Amino acid sequence: MVIMRPSQGREQSSILCTRTKNFMKTTVINSVKSIASDRLVAVLLTLFIAACLVYCIYVGISLQPSDLQVAVHYTAYGDTNFYRDKWYYLISFIGLGLILAVAHTTIAGKIYLQGRRPLAILFLALSFLMLLIVWLITRSVLGIAFL
Question: 85: part of which helix (H) or strand (E)?
Answer without folding.
Answer: strand 82-85
